[in-house]
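Example record used in the benchmark description.
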Amino acid sequence: MNNYNDFRSKLLKEDLFRINVEKYIEKVKKVGSIIIWGSASTGQLVYDLLLKFGISEKVTYFADNKREKWGTKHNHLMVLSPEEVVSKVKEDPHTKIIIAALHLADINKQLLSLGIEESAIDFRGFGLAKDYWTFQKETPFSIIHSHIDDYEKVYSLLADERSKSVYLGILNSKISLDNTYLAGIASPAEEQYFEKEPFL
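Model output (structure tokens):
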């Protein structure tokens, strides 16, 4: 099979962008209260997504590592310290934390070290919200497919199968908002960190 046919056969052929946003929102509707970890622009992206779909009332608090933000309000909601987050989750085990920060892996480790169960932590929401707002006018599917020849050319220039697999994984992840396409992209020697299904 030549590079072009190989590329087209492995690239997603359906625009799953909005479908997967709606699937995520349906899962969020079924959880208890939500704490958004990140009270700056990153947290706002997640809050705005939940607001857009009519479920912002599930957000009861924001949280942040910055001491100067503790006790302040963001969107009329209290900003908690890490220790206060732990207390809130212990008070209500149905509370979920959406990490809305650039350093997802670090904050995930921090929450786990504080005793928060992995099932209470969601790190899909931020990336999904960011892409949702970024691609309002044109979805990644339509962008990629309207420039398919250019993307195919890049694919054909990649020398090894691993590079091609990584490239396709990134494109399919963008098209679908599904990071399972990124699994295995990090080199085996590195710690891998890819989003799991939220709220397991």
